[in-house]
Amino acid sequence: MHKNFKNIEKVVFGRGSFDQMDSILSEKRPENCNFFLFVVDNYFKGKPLESRIPIKPEDTIMFIDVDVHEPTTEQIDSIRDSVLQSKGIPSGVVGIGGGSIMDIAKAVSLMFTNEGSSTKYQGLNLIKNPGIYHLGVPTISGTGAECSMTAVLTGPEKKLGLKCDWTVFNQVILDPDLTETVPVDWWFYTGMDTYIHCIESENGILNNAFSHAYAEEVLRLCKDVFLNEGSGQSPENNEKLMVASLMGGLSLTYSEVGVCHALSYGLSKILKMRHCYANCVAFQHLAEFYGDGLKEFNKMLEHHQIVLPQNLSKDWTEQQITDMAKVAYNLPHMWNHALGADWKDKFTVDDIEALYRRF
Ligand code: NAD
Ligand code: ZN
Fold first, then answer.
1. Most buried residue, 109, 212, 227, 254, by most Cβ within 10 Å?
2. H-type helices in the chain, by residue range?
């Protein structure tokens, strides 16, 4: 079976395109209870962007602090319940922020039309009804959450996405200027997420001409942004990285991520380490899987004077290492891609524990 992927319906790209949001939303305003729900990264509260959000008196705006924790099922249920009780179903949900806010907007839009807790729907195609209109405005580039068909949520039992065709945004506004305030460390970690997406998508059995075409271009763009002369945060590189993020997401959608993402999920679930940072922490130890990519990654680290932590595992308990290895092992699609269909013969939970002990 070949993948049949639902793409974003509409995409605006360009510096200053944020200001087209009002006209884009106007035709959707008559739907449902005639108001929009805006979920916005708390970073923008009181910043100039806040005054450019085309909010009307009937709309609801929620500023969310994404640094406390990655999006949770409980958080999604509570946003949905409070809005439903006070105003009913919105015309649509607009998310303005990084990967965390993209996932919150996608998940909330689905949960307005699917009863019960979002924990019931963590997995593939478990959602019963299409969600409401949702528009995403990424403000940090790299995760590809703006184009993926999953809204990753941490629940009481698992960190797993609400994954289905209806998760994908109806509209995305890609305005590279919005990323100019991203601190250099987050710029690096989140940008490396897209780099690692493509290294992993390329190195595995599901790689194909479609995913390869995107990955090849993304890796070229990442070199411009992080390594070549003129690298660093600049209007031109912000454009390149925003495009790379989207294309990296498309590359892995048609292929798959691999060992690094499996290990990173363990770090996030058990140690609450953030996705992009966790990928960087893991990637530096995976020479036998991604040797050439790792050499380039090390050059990029050096070039931007980013120092990753070492000897973390000496402070971890055996139980934590086992728990992380189990989380990683339970992502068979990633191991299948990276190691082949017989991966269970080649790799065990003990082997995964050994990888974590290198960290
Ligand atoms: P984030 O949304 O967690 O934000 C990281 C930090 O950057 C926060 O402090 C935020 O306030 C800040 N920030 C964002 N934009 C800014 C700006 N323009 N200026 C200044 N600061 C800004 O970052 P992320 O790395 O994009 O997202 C991580 C999340 O994405 C995780 O929850 C992860 O699970 C999820 N994710 C989802 C997918 C998917 O396909 N759905 C893929 C990968 C990761
Ligand atoms: Zn990722």
1. 109
2. 21-26, 48-52, 73-86, 99-111, 184-202, 209-226, 235-254, 259-271, 275-283, 287-303, 318-329, 332-339, 343-346, 349-357
Q: What is the mean pLDDT of residues 217-236?
A: 97
- Rounded Cα distance, 320 and 280, in Å: 19
From atom 6 of ligand 1, which residue's Cα is the shortest distance away?
A: 186
Compute the average pLDDT of residues 290-312: 97
SS3 87: coil
Model pTM? 0.95
Burial class (CB in 10 A: 0-12, 13-18, 19+), 26: exposed
Atom 39, ligand 1: which residue's CA is nearest? 145
* Any atom of ligand 1 within 6 Å of the Cβ of 40: no
Ligand 1 pocket residue status of 140, Cβ below 6 Å? yes
Task: Tell me the residues surrounding ligand 2 (ion) with CB < 5 Å.
Answer: 193
Q: How far apart are the C-alpha atoms of 284 and 304, rounded to whole Å?
A: 15
Q: What average pLDDT does the segment 86-109 reach?
A: 98
Is the C-beta atom of 253 inside 6 A of ligand 1? Answer: no
Q: 3-state secondary structure string, 4-48?
A: CCCCCCEEEECCCHHHHHHHHHHCCCCCCCCCEEEEEEHHHCCCH
- 66 C-beta closer than 6 A to ligand 1: yes
User: Is any ligand 1 atom within 6 A of the Cβ of residue 90?
Assistant: no
64 lines ligand 1 (CB under 6 A): no
pLDDT for residue 69: 87
HEC string of 287-346 equals HHHHHHHHHHHHHHHHHCCCCCCCCHHHHCCHHHHHHHHHHHHCCHHHHHHHHCCCHHHH
